[in-house]
Backbone:
C-alpha cells in the first residue's frame, strides 16, 4: 500500500500551508492510486469508484489548508477517512445497501489458507460481495470499526452488522476455496 514518505508528506503540508497550489498536485500523485484502491473496495463499478475518488479528492484539496499535520502518516490517514466517508455516502445515496436479501442460516465453514491466493484476486473477490456485505466487511476489517460504529454509520442494527460480516466472510471463504480448487 502506498505510504507517503515522511519527508514528502511534510513538504506537501508545508507547501500547502504557504499557499502553494502546485502542492495539491503532489497530493493526487502520491495518494490517488492508494485512495482509488480504497474506493474500489467499497464500490464494484470502476466508473463509480472513480467518481467517488474525484469527490474525495475535491474534499481533500478543498480542506487541505485547514489540515493539521500530527506526524508521519497523518495526511494519508486523514485522506483515507475522507475517501471511506465518500464511498459510504455514495452507497447510501444509491440505496443499494438495502437490496441484499436475508438468507437462511449459512452455517460455518473452515477458514481457507489464503497464502496461495494473490492479493489482487482477494480484492476482486471482496468487490464481488453484495454491497451491504462488502461495506460492513470493509469497515470492520480495513477501517477497524466496531459493529456499534458500523451500525451508526450505515443506520442499521448492531446485530445486522455482525450478521452481514459473518455472511461476507462465509461468501469470501467459498470464493477462496473455489479459487484454490481451480488453481491447484
Residues:
Amino acid at each position: 500500500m502506498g505510504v507517503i514518505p515522511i519527508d514528502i508528506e511534510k513538504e506537501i503540508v508545508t507547501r500547502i500551508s504557504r499557499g502553494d497550489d502546485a502542492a495539491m498536485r503532489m497530493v493526487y500523485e502520491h495518494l490517488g492510486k492508494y485512495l482509488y484502491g480504497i474506493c474500489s473496495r467499497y464500490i464494484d463499478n470502476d466508473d463509480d469508484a472513480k467518481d467517488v475518488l474525484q469527490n474525495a479528492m475535491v474534499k481533500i484539496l478543498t480542506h487541505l489548508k485547514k489540515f493539521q499535520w500530527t506526524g508521519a502518516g497523518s495526511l494519508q490517514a486523514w485522506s483515507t477517512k475522507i475517501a471511506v466517508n465518500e464511498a459510504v455516502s455514495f452507497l447510501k445515496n444509491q440505496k443499494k445497501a438495502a437490496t441484499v436479501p436475508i438468507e437462511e442460516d449459512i452455517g460455518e465453514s473452515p477458514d481457507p489458507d489464503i497464502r496461495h491466493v494473490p492479493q489482487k484476486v482477494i480484492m476482486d473477490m471482496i468487490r464481488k460481495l453484495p454491497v451491504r456485505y462488502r461495506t460492513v466487511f470493509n469497515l470492520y476489517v480495513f477501517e477497524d470499526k466496531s459493529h456499534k460504529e458500523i451500525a451508526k454509520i450505515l443506520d442499521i442494527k448492531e446485530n445486522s452488522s455482525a450478521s452481514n460480516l459473518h455472511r461476507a466472510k462465509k461468501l469470501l471463504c467459498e470464493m477462496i476455496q473455489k479459487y484454490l480448487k481451480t488453481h491447484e
